[in-house]
Fold each of these.
Amino acid sequence: MTEQKRQECARILKQEEISEGIFSLWIESAQIARDARPGQFAALYCKDRSRLLPRPISICEADPDGNRIRLVYRVAGAGTAEFSALGAGDTLEITGPLGNGYPSEEVSRNDGSALLIGGGIGIPPMLELAKRMHCEKTIVLGYRDHIFMADAFSAYGPVYIATEDGSCGSRGNVMDCIRENGLRGDRIFACGPTPMLRSLQAYAREHAIPCWLSLEQRMACGIGACLACICHTTETDEHSGVKNARICVEGPVFNATQIELKG
Ligand SMILES: Cc1cc2nc3c(=O)[nH]c(=O)nc-3n(C[C@H](O)[C@H](O)[C@H](O)COP(=O)(O)OP(=O)(O)OC[C@H]3O[C@@H](n4cnc5c(N)ncnc54)[C@H](O)[C@@H]3O)c2cc1C
Ligand code: FES
């Protein structure tokens, strides 16, 4: 049974634009800050009721001592544009934490090494993961052009950067960066666009490396009711009898061996 999360009216503590069109938002929520695990997300509701569906945004940081969470998002359309106009003291309807997050038993391991890989707007959720993991970590961040948040990761391990135009770090994508620098890890944790996840899935399979991928597919209800967010799985789901999983409930994090990332 899926636990229903309460919608709360949360106060905005701070919002700033940290790069072109990328916003960092601190929200007061004791409950989400206390319960959030790395890789989970929050559903944000628009005040403009012509946009009924909540917008899923990953939890970038959870600060239970300060009763606050941080979300970092790119303005993609009308909903995120509305959020970007909010400032300290404004309120926002929010539900969370939602989804499964990265497996707790993997996050808490302190043996071996991990590659933490974020691409584009998949970078923010890797920060809370980097903070919570105590094994040796190497962080790989892929950008189209503008760099954001890279400094925040340097406290948790060596950071390698890839940019499509080669303006910073390796030219190309995160796979080019991994190969160019001979980066290794016993386990892989990643979040980013589907082509990036697909190439990491192939790399992990080729080298028999356990790998967890967080998918950012479009969602509608965000609570498992509408099936708008399904992805294809390798195993048949015992309830539905089909090879599908709902990203909002069974995901967004999946073991790379359990999903098929179609083009
Ligand atoms: C689990 C999850 C976590 C996410 N975490 C983050 C995050 O931390 N930061 C962040 O910036 N974004 C994140 N997203 C994407 C974010 O939810 C969408 O960008 C947002 O809902 C767009 O809303 P909008 O009203 O501004 O744009 P809309 O008007 O709804 O759409 C504008 C454009 O964005 C595209 N779009 C909408 N949703 C997505 C999506 N899920 N993936 C790719 N393209 C999309 C649409 O196709 C359209 O072209 C996440 C998505 C999921 C499913
Ligand atoms: S968004 Fe409705 S089931 Fe996932």
Note: Residues 219-222, 224-229, 246, 248 surround FE2/S2 (inorganic) cluster (ligand 2) (CB under 6 Å).
Amino acid sequence: MEQRFKIETDGLARSWMRYDRKTLRDYLVQGVEDPRINIQSILTRHFLIHRLFGDKFWGLMEQELRFALVVNWLLKLLKASVSPWQLHALLDGLLQGQREADGLEIPPFLSETFASLSLPNYICDLLSWAPVETTDVPIPKYLMNTFAAIWRELLENEMPRRISVLEPGCGSANDYRFIDAYGLSRLLDYHGFDLCEKNIHNAKAMFPQACFKVGNVLEIDAPDKTFDHCFMHDLFEHLSVDAMELAISEICRVTRQGICVGFFNMHEADDHIVKTVGNYHWNKLSLVRTKALFQKHARHSSDGHAAVVDAIHIDTFLMSQFGRCDYHNKDAYTLIVRL
Ligand SMILES: C[S@@+](CC[C@H](N)C(=O)[O-])C[C@H]1O[C@@H](n2cnc3c(N)ncnc32)[C@H](O)[C@@H]1O
């Protein structure tokens, strides 16, 4: 590896190692980042499920996205201190097919989702779990785990071929925790790595049997075409533009079939906006340029065949599928690369 990338690697490792282990374990799996309701984490799990089973679970995937929208909508109301009786009024409104209740809008995606479920359903529970005095208590685990339970039960009896999967920048098994809880890990030959030793320590403490290693996306420790698929979230924005290109060439080199990458800071302009923060970056990446890099490196590593790169702008996707466009991050994109 070139000296400049070694220097960047040292800076990146220092940046993440300054956090304590508990912070690293918790901070990216809370609130809107919670992989049970974070749309990009859900799309990644769907990417894997689709690779395993094709279109078989399409209907359930749609329902899981709806669930995430419903819980995100409710979390916003709870943040704005909605009262327990307003939640009850919303439930009455839904049952009676109204468009608003007690001064609160009942958004169309909510009524549609409610109508698509048999009664009673998780929306009934979500709107009536709070004690009468306050809504200032977390949504109970069993409700947040609604789809974990469904997927786990459905996937339990499936016996497809296992696929090998690589996750660079896996953090403290942030997404793997849910891949496991949703019954998917059994179907994968998973390999996660992260530059930050404390993250790997956390991941191994939670999953001693799984494969987690300290590693660098700028120099992936694996021969060409080792893995069927690769997925990752929220890493490229933190690299210099040259290091990002090197990282893209590395993941294209080691992957045979498909790549799914979540970005938190991307835009449709022609240029990247480079911003350094201490030892790392917080860039706003150009969609066209990033796509072009995948096309260039995927072509090199797949014997000249052009790769197909699909970009999903999360807010637009939710609007087109569910008529909902208030995603918390307007700059979130997921790219799916077929090699
Ligand atoms: C913003 S966090 C995202 C973590 C996880 N993917 C998630 O979405 O919750 C970025 C992660 O990338 C790791 N990282 C940074 N530079 C890296 C590199 N060069 N190689 C591998 N991992 C790296 C960090 O240690 C950190 O865990």
Note: The mean pLDDT is 95.
